[in-house]
Amino acid sequence: MSSDYVAASSGAFRYLFNYISKGNQTSTPIAMTAPVIASTEGALNSNQWRISFVMPAGSSVKDLPVPRDSSVVLVEKKEEICAVISFRGRATIELSAKNERELRQFAQDQNYTLSEEVRICRFDPPFKPGFLHYNEIVIPVIDIATPSSPDSVGR
Q: pTM for this structure?
């Protein structure tokens, strides 16, 4: 969705919520699961966001009903290794960016190469008090460098 994080999150959420609330070709309700994921390639101040729901355990794209709205696209994500940091509070851009920086620094210190993609995963409903919200920043790992052993240096 071409919009900032806040607008994309609330705007796209409505389409996804409609899909799981019988807004599909078979009018089948689908259980809402957590997290709601906002992802972008690059900086969190981006104006290009993808908002995603996680389907119930055991679901596969072939088993899910086709969305009525063409802006809702079903995608099956492959298993991947990711770096994750959790935090409490409303997942604002500022708090998310702070945690992204901490995660990237930690990963760099551990010789991990991370993707440019950043996912803000929100696990709680908006009506829950903000200080109780549980969130995660998730970044796919591209490579894990093996540090050289001291014996191999200079050989």
A: 0.86
